[in-house]
Amino acid sequence: MVAEAPLYLDACATTPLAQVAHEAMEAARQLAWANPSSLHGFGLSAAESLERSRHSLASSLGTGAEAIRFCSGATESVHLALLGAAATLPVGRLLISAVEHPAVNAAAAQLQRQGWQVEPIPVGPTGLLDLGVLESLLHPPTRLVSVIAAQSEVGSIQPLTTIAQLCRQAGVLLHTDAVQLAPHRPIAMDELGLDLVSLSAHKLGGPRGVGALLVRPGLRLEPLLGGGGQERGQRAGTEPVVLAAGFAAALAAARRHQLDGTSQRLEASRDHLLHDLLALPGVRLSGPDPTRQPRLPHHISLLLSDGQGRPLDGRKLVRALWNEGVAVSSGSACSGGSGRAEPSPVLLAMGWDRSQAASGLRLSLGSWLEASQLERVPLALERAMASCGAAAP
Amino acid sequence: MLAYLDHHATTPCDPAVVAAMAPWWGEQFANPASRLYRPALEAAAAIEAAAAELHQGLAAPSGAQVVFTSGATEANNLALKGLAEAALSSGNPRRRLVSVVSEHHAVLDVLRYLERHGFALTLLPIDAQGLLNPADLQAALDPGAGGPVLAVSVMAANNEIGTIAPLAQLAPLVHAAGALLHVDGAQAVGHIPLAMEAWGIDLLSLSGHKLYGPKGIGALLVAPGVQVAPQLQGGGQQGGLRPGTLPVPLIVGLAAALKQALADREGRALRLAALRDQLWTGLQALGGLTLNGPPPGPQRLPHNLSVTAGGVDGTRLHQLLRRQIAVSSGSACSQGSASHVLAALGRTRAEAAATVRFGLGRSTTAQQVEQALRAMADALDQASNRSAASRPER
Ligand SMILES: Cc1ncc(COP(=O)(O)O)c(C=O)c1O
Ligand SMILES: Cc1ncc(COP(=O)(O)O)c(C=O)c1O
Questions:
Q1: A240 in the same domain as A177
Q2: Is A2 contained in some domain?
Q3: N or C: which end of chain A has fewer CB within 10 A?
Q4: Is the CB of residue B132 less than 8 Å from the CB of residue B160?
Q5: pLDDT surpassing 80 at residue B394
């Protein structure tokens, strides 16, 4: 173990709770602890807090408060979006990108068992959707499209405006998993004409255990959870008022950061670190090149190989880097058990071979980091690579 | 100061629980699914400790699985839809579900959903005290009544009228028929004794905010060998049964709340039962009130009381009460529509509207009970336009 405090470079997995979120939750805990469905004064205070959070989120996302359905997180949100919308449609075809989060793939698989045809849309080498293929399939029986707005493993940002236009023209519903985009870019839901948008609070400085599905007003949705009829009958269960307050405060802060220079500073730190890392032997970039293509501003993803050009094992590297005091990820936090790295389906879809696709490393930064703290990262990676390379069979 | 007497709708998160969660909102924030570095391993250990706390606190059988959910609503949905789906996909031929008319919407709604998807549903009636008749259950469990029963869902305690179900007596009937017993324990866990294994409960739902824990967290306990199909997928957390990034602070808070609730449960139950009895005695003296549910005693939650003011305009009554005490006219989640529980007891719509549910809790004092009695006396006076002279002696 190293003497310095470990560096947390895994924002895409989860972010520390932002101070403003903490404060908003503390205030809600004192004043808005009751059940927002209760009709007495305590309940009304809770309902008022919940509605204030709803309005705040909505205005951060370019839509009206009536669009927000609070739920437990993005896993639930994407299931509600896809299964809930599909249940109101005739059985048809669902298009998804080839680089979705496992939660979307799982919901799609469930629809497949219900008779839906699921067609993955291929992506290019930087993880961007092949719009030609998308367009060519936007006709019956296609009724639903789900696209990850920003990819968690490789940081690609999809051209959502164009995708939304194509879907709207074709009269096909569009869901986007905006979990990784929302912390960094404005989402103008109404202007873009998005039908369904999934978000998770803990990826943007808010608390775990709360997320939202944004639903275009008027869109019908079959609820996943039966019960007390909360959230316009589309999501039952007592609303987590305190968590919602933290969620709203965190997103509002993220929006401010895009205006007050914080995001730009973070992006500059990322660019600097990326430059230094790419100067190391055996290190190359995966996903879009941020000097030329849209990429999440805090995101670095690398493919690593040893002196002979043989791909290293991404999971071993994560452990080795932790021993150097740096917390990163080999891709999606949720994929797989322990042991040797499995090739990442996302990297495979982008055209890397199996061993390259198991050599990925992701570093995702956040506003809790000082630029100076990042200076030791290149050396740490070099040492980690050396230790893994030596241990390789 | 308004007295909060609505602890069935929700309970305030206890300061000790807030304190237990605090470090997890702060420094220790890593994602427990990233099992590759130490903070993540610490988070995973905290979750295991919380699961062990629930397992032990609810006297679950060894090998039972603790599945964290967003609350009792999700736990009930997971239990019932999960059982049904697992039966469908494993070739288990049981296609009947049995429950009780007075269950929470988070059970009834799910059962009706399953009814629309090919399961036969039998809802048992309740008697004047809110109890189901074991003979009715026995009859419903007879395969001759329409085929073999997959599961029976009975709430441990009713959120409106406080009826405690004799689960230990019902479970053998359920098991003798080869069916499984699901129990919605949202209003019981932390309030009355509950022993999952000894009572023969196969699946048990609970919610944090009903036992002085945080909102947004609950759990489903599943006895070993019981097959439940996940309702959400992707990410693989919780053995695939309920994926999604685990809300470590809330999980730690749920366990802390349960631990504390079990530690003070007996003393609290005695104290609140005495206060509740004081309330009931005072209310009886006001006259014109009918008790809903069992008489105060072992068949009723110690902190619950539900009364109906006959011939009184319920809207007016509650408007008046709201100025002095926080109570409920029924289930908090079913605002607008008349309570199905009160309807099952034979109350009319008007009577249901003129019903007052009291839920006492950890912070309730004798002064608040006095305050509630004064509030009821005033409100009844004004709502029924009875003059003080015509009111029975107190
Ligand atoms: C793109 C994306 N979608 C969905 C999820 C699932 O989010 P949650 O863990 O909040 O359910 C994640 C997080 O892992 C993600 O990165
Ligand atoms: C008996 C019962 N079951 C389930 C629930 C639902 O709990 P939650 O809203 O926390 O999901 C409640 C609370 O309203 C309840 O009283």
A1: yes
A2: no
A3: C
A4: no
A5: no
State the pLDDT at residue A228. 86
Which residue pairs from A26-31 have beta carbons closer than 8 angstroms and sit at least 24 positions apart in sequence?
A27/A245, A28/A241, A28/A242, A28/A244, A28/A245, A28/A246, A29/A242, A29/B13, A29/B18
Option in A8, A37, A327 nearest B335 (CB): A37
Say which CATH number the domain at A292 has: 3.90.1150.10
> Which ligand sits nearest to residue B333's alpha carbon?
2
Please check whether residues A184 and A267 belong to one and the same domain: no
Whether ligand 2 lies within 6 angstroms of the CB of B207 is answered as yes
Do A208 and A131 lie in a common domain? yes
Residue B343's CB is within 10 A of a number of other CB atoms, namely: 16
Least confident of A59-68, A175-184, A327-336, B343-352: A327-336
Starting at the earlier edge strand, list the strands of the sheet with A173-177. A68-71, A211-215, A196-200, A173-177, A142-148, A93-97, A117-121
The answer to whether the Cβ–Cβ distance between B215 and A105 falls below 8 Å is no
Domain finish residue from A257, A288, A307: A257
Pick from B113, B44, B46: nearest CA to B73: B113
For ligand 1, mutation pick of A82, A176, A179 (most atoms within 8 Å of CB): A179
What's the CA-to-centroid distance between A187 and ligand 1, angstroms? Answer: 17
Of the listed ligands, the closest to the CA of A208 is 1
Residue A141: asked if its preceding bond is cis (omega within 30°), the reply is yes
Tell me the domains of chain B and their CATH numbers: 3-9+265-390 (3.90.1150.10), 15-260 (3.40.640.10)
Ligand 2 touching residue B187 (CB < 6 A)? yes
d(CA B312, CA B24): 50
Residue of B172, B333, B349, B365 marked catalytic: B333
Counted residue by residue, chain B has a size of 394
Q: What is the 3-state secondary structure (H, E, C) of A230-263?
A: CCCCCCCCCCCHHHHHHHHHHHHHHHHHHHCCHH
Known catalytic membership, residue B333 = yes
**Matching residue, tokens 């055996």:** A282
pLDDT digits (tens, 9 = 90+) for B160-213: 999 999 999 999 999 999 999 999 999 999 999 999 999 999 999 999 999 999
Token pair, residue B333, equals 């989640």
> Which residue, among B139, B205, B134, has the nearest Cα to B171 in the 3D structure?
B134
Residue B32 near residue B43 (C-beta atoms within 8 A): yes
Q: State the ipTM, two decimals.
A: 0.92
Q: What is the pLDDT of residues B11-21, one digit of tens each?
A: 999 999 999 99
End-to-end CA distance of chain B: 25
In the structure encoding, which two tokens stand for residue A254, read together? 């993220």
Q: Least CB-CB distance to B332: which of A16, A37, A322? A: A37
Task: Collect all residues with Cβ–Cβ distance below 8 Å to B219 and sequence separation of at least 6.
Answer: B54, B66, B67, B68, B69, B75, B205, B206, B254
- Could you tell me which residues come within 8 angstroms of residue B394 by beta carbon, excluding any fewer than 6 positions away? B285, B286, B377
CA angle B96, B100, B101 (to 5 degrees): 120
Mean pLDDT, all residues of chain B: 93
List all residues 6 or more positions away from A223 whose beta carbon is below 8 Å from its beta carbon: A80, A84, A233, A234, A235, A236
Question: Residue B37's pLDDT is what?
Answer: 61
Q: Based on C-alpha coordinates, what's the Rg of chain A?
A: 21
- Please report which residue ranges of chain B form alpha helices under DSSP H: 15-25, 38-57, 72-90, 105-116, 134-141, 167-176, 196-199, 248-286, 314-322, 340-344, 349-353, 366-384
Alpha carbon distance A235, A213 (integer Å): 10
DSSP class of residue A54? H
Contacts of residue A264, defined as CB under 8 A and 6 or more positions apart, other chains included, come to none
User: Is the torsion defined by CA of A60, A67, A243, A37 positive or negative?
Assistant: positive
Closest-CA residue to A107 (of A90, A84, A88, A130): A84
Task: In whole angstroms, give the CA distance from residue B25 to residue B250.
Answer: 9
Tokens 């395969």: give the residue: B143
